[in-house]
Amino acid sequence: MAEFPSIRIPFNRPTYVDGANRAMLDAIRGGHTAGGGPYGLRCEEVLGKMAGRPVLLVSSCTHALEMAALLLDIRPGDEVIVPSFTFVSTANAFALRGARLRFADCDGFGNIGLSQVERLLSGRTRAVVPVHYGGNSCDMDRLLALCGERKVPVVEDAAQSVGAGYKGRPLGALGTLGCYSFHETKNLVAGEGGGLVAAPGPLLDRAHHLRDKGTNRREFRNGLADKYTWVDLGSSWVMSDLNAAYLSAQLDCLEEIARRRSEIWNRYARELGAPASRAGISHMAVPAHNEPNHHLFALILRDRPHRDRFIAFMRERGILTPFHYVSLHSSPFGQVYHGGEAPLPMTERLSDCLVRLPVFYNLSEAEQGEVIHAVSEFLARD
Questions:
Q1: pLDDT tens-digit profile of 292-304?
Q2: Distances (CA, A) of 250 to 134, 141, 323
Q3: pLDDT digit string, tens, across residues 249-284
Q4: What span, in angstroms and rounded, lies between the C-alpha atoms of 325 and 172?
Q5: Phi/psi zone of residue 223: left (φ > 0), alpha (ψ -120 to 50 degrees), beta?
Q6: Which domains does the chain have, with CATH numbers?
Q7: What are the strands, taking DSSP E only, across the chain?
Q8: Residue 216: pLDDT band by 50, 70, 90 thresholds?
Q9: I need a surface site. Which of 75, 93, 126, 161 has the fewest CB within 10 A?
């Protein structure tokens, strides 16, 4: 087996800001490291103001999606439309409830194709789950209109979209429910963590029960119930206050994190745009209707062999530039749902040709310069 040099510039380093250690130590000394502590409550307050809707901190975006499936009472045989170009959590959350998954193709921005959604909608559809790829989205007005006509809930998989917007409105807070991620690869990091976004009302009230292991803990704690008891399905889905403390320090630096990621993204676009175009490749742009959070910078290579050569070339120089999703409809388990149905050409193209460059808050200018030099060298040679 060929030996590769060690990776000097990784694809990602978890966001770290001054104050993170202090906040975590404060949580430990304060004696409340489990969920529902002061740092968790503060994060929920800040995130709720950003979203314009309440946000419940949970242990992962995967768990937020699983909660969404429970809240919508998804049952065996119900159809749920999901993009094939996404991570498995998007599909798993609904498959676990017995749903029949209907895979939709994506558009050139990696977002769910609305003509596909329109084709797949039926009387059996119980949810549509758009994934906001890279912090961008499809035409949400059109999607919400399509689903609203049929009274089909929209669950936004906004794992990559904290801080991003659609026509001035926060992504993740437009549909029936929204799901955020604070995984170590995201713009804001809790190690592992997520958020469930829901408007005030029955769904939000029930979400508290689900997150608290199916109990009425919140009402009991607030003096609204005289018994602490089991009232619904649920699990241990709350984020610990240690994780929330780490996240809280980043919320204090939100503007600085957003500014730095914007600088990195725009430098790639500025310095690699012309060489990429001359080589017959492109980078993933931002739709006009979005206010980006610059979650990722993706190049679309000519074909899969070209993409594979690029990844190997960069790795030889100690730089990690991974591809992204293997299309779900082509995966062994995905074929259980999609076998024999029409191909999804744009999904297959992005799955074969897309590659991501390092974008993270603590990436230095010198490191980014190395990445740009190596990419330019490959484009000039290949």
A1: 999 999 999 999 9
A2: 20, 31, 27
A3: 999 999 999 999 999 999 999 999 999 999 899 999
A4: 21
A5: left
A6: 20-251 (3.40.640.10), 254-381 (3.90.1150.10)
A7: 55-58, 79-83, 100-104, 125-128, 155-157, 165-166, 169-170, 177-181, 194-198, 282-283, 290-291, 297-300, 354-357
A8: confident
A9: 75
**For the stretch 40-76, what's the b/e string if a residue is b when 16 or more beta carbons lie within 10 angstroms of its beta carbon?**
bebbbeebbebbebbbbbbbbbbbbbbbbbbbbebee
Any idea what the Cα angle at residue 330 is, between residues 325 and 333, rounded to 5°? 95
Q: Which of 378, 359, 377, 376 is nearest to 368 (CA)?
A: 359
pLDDT of residue 381: 86
What element of type H or E holds 262? helix 254-278
Residue-wise DSSP of 345-369 = HHHHHHHHHEEEE---TT--HHHHH
pLDDT at 329 over 90: yes
Contact 293, 261 (CB under 8 A): yes
* Nearest alpha-carbon partner for 42 in 214, 257, 248, 239: 248
Classify residue 326 as exposed, middle or buried by CB count within 10 Å of its CB (0-12, 13-18, 19+): middle
Say how far apart CA 60 and CA 180 lie, in whole Å: 8
State mean pLDDT over 232-247: 95
Secondary structure string (H, E, C) spanning 60-125: CHHHHHHHHHHHCCCCCCCEEEEECCCCHHHHHHHHCCCCEEEEECECCCCCECHHHHHHHCCCCE
